[in-house]
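Usage

Read records sequentially. Each one opens with the input sequence:
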Amino acid sequence: MKKSQERGMKEIRAMVLAAGFGTRMQKAGEQRPKPLVELAGQPLIKYPIALIRQAGFDEVIINLHHRSQEIKEKIGDGRGLGIKIKYITEPEILGTGGGVKNAHRLFPARKWLTINADTVLDLNLKNLLLFHDRLKPLATMVLTRWNEKFTPVFADNLARVKRIDGFPEKISPEKTLSI
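and closes with the structure output:
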């Protein structure tokens, strides 16, 4: 048995980031918390949960803050979704990095897979994790071609992130990706 397993540390954990206020959702975010806004008849949060389950995870951690009880009531313990759900309610919103750090403190792991609750992806997470393991970077980020609606990410020819910039002055779309 690995020493990390002896201490109760998992090799990898999956997390859905769902603590945000949903302010950019405007009216849709006023009626319900952003993770529960529906797309094709399903709450947004169910899409990343399904992706995580399809990748072979049997458990997902979800951080909550804004209207957390509504999300817990709608999603439940995960039995109906085929995956165990553990919730972390943040009394004070911690932001993306703070949410992951807090989760790691409560549920230690060597690696973390994190997905935003409002993200709908056509992506094979198993292949992404294999890619990450093969290259052994500190982090792997899934990006798309740059669009003015999203934060630009500048990468080199080997797809290594060189800069993330929220306020670009001059951007070349062919050399820019987006979060």
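Summary fields computed downstream for this record:
- Confidence is low (pLDDT under 50) at residues 1-7.
- Helices lie at 3-6, 27-31, 46-54, 68-75, 95-106, 125-135.
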